[in-house]
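Before relying on records like the one below, remember that each one covers exactly one chain. Contacts with other chains, cofactors or solvent are not represented anywhere in the record.
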Amino acid sequence: MNFSDLVENSFNGQSLLRFLKEQMPSCSNKRLKAFLEAGSVKINGMIERFGSKRVFQGDLVQFVSKKIPISSSICILYEDDNFLAINKPVNFESSQLNLNRSFPSSYLVHRLDKNTTGVLLIAKNKNFQKYLEDLFRTKKIQKKYVALIDGVLTKDHITIKSHLVRKKVYQGQAIWGSSNSLAGLYAETHLKKLKIFDDFSLVELSPITGRTHQLRVHLKELGHPILGDFQYCRKFRTTKDVLCLCLHSSEVSFEHPITNEHLTIKAPLPDAFSLIK
């Protein structure tokens, strides 16, 4: 269902989500929010992705249905008797409950944001879960990410250091940011420019620490937010139509705690990176 409608007085000052629910009563709030995240809704010609946005009498609200990215089949990148590594798809939540739906009797070791794709390690027993958690804690697991970021990056290499704190909660999501004091959690990211395009750039990110939303915050504060990161950026400079977060855990490397073999596990780029394919 596509529509273009003016807001009437009865909805003056109400939330966009409530207005959409009136127009599409058969759609659940969850699905409406998914349409918002996919860029299906415009207010007065501008894409709006937040259901809490207020609409006012005379506003023109347009809805054009777009394909909503969903989790695809999960690809196993590596497996042995103690653990496996999967290529986490978009919209797959890194929780123990969700993990057990696809991999019974498995144990979560670390997390990726719901819309971040790429290498995710999963233990097959409690002992190996502790081994891998210890490797993460002692920074003996090296992680690399690739991201598409807004704008043209000029420097080839950048090291970003800050202390992160919770700034606020918005629509049930914690928003993090850097603090001028040392009270927050220390976060360090190394950035390498891989390629530039007309109005966005491809970069490799190596997080030295593993703080919540670290990469997303550091890139936003650098002035080059990650494309599709609508939680930290409302408007991008690029003219490209991006539907989901362009952040991918491309590589994880470490020494196997039992065999002592050095492992490097890589995940191919997802559809979100079709802009550069």
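The helical segments are 16-23, 29-37, 96-102, 126-137, 214-222.
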